[in-house]
Amino acid sequence: MRRKYLWLFVLSLLVACGQQIKIQTPELTGEELPEFSVTEIALTGPLAKRDAEISGLAWYGDTLILLPQYPGFDGNSRLYALPKSEIEAYLATDNPVPLRPQPVPFVDSGITSLIDGFQGFEAIAFAGNRVYLTIEAELDEGMLGYLVAGKITPNLSEVVIETSVVTEILPQAKHDNRTDETLFIYGDTLITLYEVNGTRVNEMPVAHRFGFDLNAQDPLSFPNIEYRVTDATSIDEKGYFWVINFYDPRDENLQTDTDALTDRFGRGTTHSTYEQVERLVEMRITDAGVSLTDTPPLYLELLSDVSRKWEGVARFNDGFLLATDKYPETILVYVGK
Questions:
Q1: Among 2, 21, 117, 213, whose CB has the most other CB atoms within 10 angstroms?
Q2: Architecture field, domain 28-336
Q3: Over the stretch 74-96, which tens digit does the pLDDT of each residue have?
């Protein structure tokens, strides 16, 4: 209470001196939030290479599927799989040996040639033995996203993409290298999210909605959220899910002086020191739209001035698994709440 009255006293002196000021009261300023360290899960094999560029994570039963942006990056077209039991055993061991993800042959059926300006696969989701992926492409007139489907064999012997239906996903703003990079299942529909949804770059964002037949349905409203959204967890029984939300200072067009989540909830110690932002943000989806929840963001403890480009997230027991693309290198981590 004494601090509050001291603040009011200083304010009254400034006003008395005729100075124009703009100050947020302590009641409106976010507090310092805890930050979460990550536990790295060392990998070996082709997926450990920087060129793997992991762009999405999703569970197929109790198997984590890791999606390279270019499945043929090492000369063999593959996705990769890690059993949940192996990840649990790794985290429970004091001196674990690196995990070697199992290759899953990926038959793209020529989709990489059929789509002009193909720039890789960006997200993946499963509904039973059906697999769905988003694709990013750059044309002369700008960016364009696509949604495709296929099937996975239960024994993980292959994933086969179908080319009979390829659905376009129009970008919501004119930005290079920006399309719908997030995909998840909501009931009997597919939801995709555009990568940038800040107030300055995307005034009225939406969540695109599609049937399992890939036909577009009416979109849902989506909140403005600064920086980049690159992947989402599955939703729980009440419609809650988490998205990756990060900012790399090299993305100059996404710089902003105002971040509503920071203003409301605050930030962690390292986020008050460095420019980059690395956090998970909780949302909820209903038939009325997607909204932010009252849960504070989960901030990751930053690594000095090195930005980690998080591109994949999946729920894992009481926390999350996250993966980067090639910046700064291929990294798979566990984060506990």
A1: 117
A2: 5 Propeller (2.115)
A3: 999 999 999 999 999 999 999 99
